[in-house]
């Protein structure tokens, strides 16, 4: 079994050019599959709100939701670098609240790092959490928690003015102590510039190839999340179809008394006559 990566390994991978394969997981089975497949990192994203809990967005997700899902993921992937995603409301109110909640991720769920969304406007939180000794991953570009302000789930940094702001955010995030940066739904030209400019690893979700690794949402790539599919998703499987078909077959088998078969039952050990005597005792 491969050794669990540390932030120093991730830095080394940036230097050597080896790409990081990063995926989300929210529960024990998915985390086990990710670890067996040799993923470098797992994100327990607050996307769990949409992918697993059935909310319309990520805003309703709570700290307790995140902690409990991180715990399950850690049980499933004891040897993988796990990132806990700080949910909306867990860090915006004050630096103190941000540090307190980041500490919960480490103490209660044994994650290796936390991620939080935003650029210069949350810099003091990035700094405070980093100063507390916690590995922080920044997240800029399309930031789902503030999609209301962005006018929806839209690509960012496509014009020079907005790209300039993102470059300033990226530099400031590194200076505040973050140890890696995730860029979401920005043009690859900008991703490449930011990745070359920063010393810390830069990972992409929907931001193209030229950077230090890729993140994908498991529900999207497996074809399990059916509400919508972003342009940047590659579907590697049609799991929703497989599951629905299996459920339909099971339902038909039950209605037609084709399940369970003889091989699925536990037979009696004593004779049928003995059992008939037993049943008579209750008549
Ligand atoms: O919650 C999540 O999965 C994320 C990704 C959208 C980057 O933050």
Low-confidence stretches: none
CATH class of the largest domain: Alpha Beta
CATH superfamily membership of the largest domain: Phosphoenolpyruvate-binding domains
Q: Whole-Å distance between the termini?
A: 60 Å
Task: State the shape.
Answer: elongated
Helix content: 40-55%
Q: What is the number of independent domains?
A: 2
Strand order of the largest sheet: 1-2-3-4-5-6-7-8
Q: Please name the CATH topology of the largest domain.
A: TIM Barrel
> Helix tally?
12
String of helices and strands? HEHEHHEHEHEHHEHEEHHH
Descriptive notes:
The structure is a single chain. The chain has 283 residues and is an alpha/beta fold. The chain has two domains: 7-237, Phosphoenolpyruvate-binding domains (TIM Barrel, Alpha-Beta Barrel), CATH 3.20.20; 242-280, no CATH class. It contains twelve helices and eight strands. The chain has an eight-stranded parallel barrel, surrounded by six helices. Helix 2 crosses helix 4 (63-76), helix 4 packs parallel to helix 5 (95-109) and helix 5 (95-109) crosses helix 6. It is elongated and about 85 Å long. It starts with 6 loop residues before the first helix and ends with a helix. 41% of the residues are buried. The model has no long low-confidence stretch (mean pLDDT 97). Bound molecules: 3-methyl-2-oxobutanoic acid. The site of 3-methyl-2-oxobutanoic acid has 12 residues, from strand 6.
